[in-house]
Amino acid sequence: MEKMPYTPEMDAAAVMLQTVTPTESIVTTDWRTGLPVLTGTRVTLREMRVSDAPSLFAMLSTEEVARFISPPPTTVEGFERFIMWANRERAAGNYACFAIVPHGMDTAIGIFQVRQLEPGWGTAEWGFAIGSPFWGTGAFSDGAKLVLDFAFETIGVHRLEARAAVQNARGNAALRKLGAVQEGVLRRSFLRNGQYLDQALWAILDEDWQMGLSIPVPKVH
Ligand SMILES: CC(C)(COP(=O)(O)OP(=O)(O)OC[C@H]1O[C@@H](n2cnc3c(N)ncnc32)[C@H](O)[C@@H]1OP(=O)(O)O)[C@@H](O)C(=O)NCCC(=O)NCCS
């Protein structure tokens, strides 16, 4: 999503005192108490940990990644606060943010996030950002399938929207190839670097997903 729901202003100092519970060992049917670990052919999606802050800062703060999305935190500490905020919002049932970890690595190379746009999650929005060394590697398609399954089957989303700046050719192509439908253009809806940008509005419905969208499954070499 172009507008990440997190902004540093939301982050009250008291929140920083919260501890973040590692989740891999948690076996739960309720994602609000800890996100499940989702395993694909190339990547694992898991809850973000505070220790992911340095790698996420390195991966997501570059100009090419951040160009068309809301400005990410500008320091490692800022990412730590974002991760703690994300855990709190997950516990409140409003938001889920997965770290993307390629098989054979421990570090997070990007994120998928989903947030409710209305109480009850009937309509939700998702977004994603991956460090540019991992663009075109299949990490996106593999992780997207996992997070779409999670949104439609675990959370029970009916309509999943995404917004992408019209100039973001790669982001729009990524959504198109998943089978998302472009429903229109939100004119001058996204303020970035002092300029209002047009955004494409994309959506996937639960019935589309149940019919089986054709997400290419990356080959493992
Ligand atoms: C969006 C993002 C997660 C996608 O991951 P990715 O690994 O780049 O995605 P993929 O390579 O699987 O798919 C991108 C597609 O765009 C295509 N593409 C790349 N540049 C393009 C261009 N200039 N015009 C049209 N299509 C383009 C690629 O060919 C690819 O399609 P293909 O797999 O059919 O060849 C990643 O690019 C990213 O993090 N970008 C920065 C953050 C961002 O913009 N997030 C999206 C907000 S909606």
Overview of this protein structure:
The chain is 28% helix and 27% strand. It is built from 6 helices and 8 strands, in the order ββαααβββαβαββα. The protein has helices at residues 53-60, 63-66, 76-91, 139-155, 169-178, 206-211, and strands spanning 38-39, 43-47, 95-102, 110-116, 123-130, 159-165, 181-192, 195-205. α4 (139-155) links the parallel β5 (123-130) and β6. It is globular, with a radius of gyration of 16 Å. The protein starts with 37 loop residues before the first strand and ends in a 10-residue tail after the last helix. The protein binds coenzyme A (COA). Residues 2, 65, 68-69, 127-130, 135-136, 140-141, 162, 164, 168-171, 173-174, 177 line the site of coenzyme A.
Strand content: 25-35%
Give me the count of strands. 8
Largest sheet: 8 strands, mixed
Query: CA-to-CA gap between the ends?
Result: 31 Å
Tell me the number of helical segments per DSSP (H or I, 4 or more residues long): 6
Question: Which kinds of small molecule does this entry bind, naming each only once?
Answer: coenzyme A
